[in-house]
Design goal:
The protein is of the alpha+beta class and 341 residues long. It has a domain of 63 residues. 43% of the residues lie in helices and 14% in strands. It has a four-stranded mixed β-sheet. Strands 5-6-7 form a three-stranded antiparallel β-sheet. It has a two-stranded antiparallel ribbon with strand order 1-4. Strand 2 and strand 3 form a beta hairpin. The longest helix has 26 residues. The chain is globular. The model has no long low-confidence stretch (mean pLDDT 93).
Length: 341
């Protein structure tokens, strides 16, 4: 499933790229101007709800309206997010430089001086936000979207977080017809270019050539195994699945592979519940808004408490609920599934 995508406004670079990948056939429905709601505390009791608004200026102006007296902190947050956005361009240029030159810029510590992205990449979201304001509710609202990338505010890079804030400044969109339309309109473009797409063909292992380079994958098709060869192999299964489950045993044992594995730790998992309802969007009062619901203001503390809880205590310490209705976001839903949500 998909919850929402930013930067899909007409004329944006992201929209142009997606249109190329889908031959311009994928249509996007805009979400309301208020696309996210951050709920802090019990929504039935003394909890408070804060709204996130689309628009480069509106986003921050409406935050100031909800947090009177915090204009300076919100302005500084805006400046930091903006500077990181500019720094991303420099990061792209860095990747195109000869390796020795990129290495020199990094080793000489010149890069953080010229590139705000690099300067803020080593500072955590929690550290930066805590330095902006003592207001616990504003800290939470400036950090709420960490759920989308799934790393605790005390461990997340502020630059990573800023990329996401920038991504949604102009608002949010949902693919008309549902998430499946993305694949449906991308596959013909891949095939037209001479590629192919296989469904229900799980990868069993990565194939290596005599030099130990990845040269293909073995997939299961029905009861048979099929080897597919290609000049470049890209895995999006995560480093642990890729190295520990898909690489042959001899490659897995290599010191280079093991040293990379020791540099990373497992991320936190999420649990998704899909609920089918009888009744239309209008009858049930469903809105095309994403609700980020936290039992309190200390997002990092609540996450840590939950992760440190025993199996028995964990259910009483749930730190967050993300509640959304994709059927309410899709203008074609009622036509395709009348009276359901």
């Amino acid at each position: 499933g998909i919850h929402y995508v930013g930067q899909m406004q007409e004329g944006s670079l992201m929209r142009f790229l997606v249109d190329q990948l889908t031959d311009g056939q994928l249509e996007w429905a805009p979400l309301p101007a208020t696309y996210d709601a951050v709920v802090l505390g019990d929504p039935q009791g003394a909890g408070k709800t804060f709204h996130i608004h689309s628009g480069k200026r509106q986003y921050f102006r409406r935050l100031k309206e909800q947090f009177p007296g915090e204009a300076a902190a919100i302005d500084e947050f805006q400046q930091l997010v903006k500077s990181v956005g500019r720094g991303v361009v420099l990061l792209g240029i860095l990747k195109m430089l000869p390796r020795f030159l990129a290495w020199l810029l990094i080793r000489s510590r010149l890069l953080p001086r010229f590139c705000s992205f690099s300067h803020l990449a080593s500072r955590s979201l929690k550290e930066v936000v805590d330095g902006l304001t003592p207001n616990p509710e504003l800290r939470a609202v400036l950090s709420y979207i960490f759920l989308t990338y799934g790393v605790l505010p005390s461990k997340a890079s502020f630059s990573m977080h800023s990329i996401l804030v920038n991504h949604f400044l102009h608002g949010a969109w949902y693919p008309k017809g549902g998430a499946g339309e993305i694949a449906f309109h991308t596959i013909p473009v891949i095939r037209k270019a001479g590629g192919n797409v296989f469904g229900k063909a799980p990868v069993q292992s990565i194939l290596l050539d005599a030099q130990g380079r990845a040269c293909g994958v073995s997939v299961k098709k029905g009861q048979d195994s099929v080897d597919i060869f290609a000049p470049v192999i890209i895995s999006d299964a995560g480093i642990f699945n890729t190295y520990e489950r898909l690489l042959p045993a001899e490659a897995r044992a290599l010191p280079e592979i093991q040293s990379q594995l020791h540099m990373v730790s497992h991320g936190e998992g999420g649990f998704t519940v899909f609920v089918g309802l009888s009744g239309s969007r209008e009858e049930l009062g469903l809105e095309p808004i994403n609700y980020f619901m936290f039992p309190g203001n200390d997002l990092d503390g609540m996450m840590k408490l939950y992760l440190a809880s025993s199996r028995e205590e964990a259910a009483n310490n749930i730190p967050v609920l993300f509640v959304t209705s994709p059927s309410a976001k899709d203008p074609t839903w009622e036509m395709r599934h009348p009276g359901k949500a």
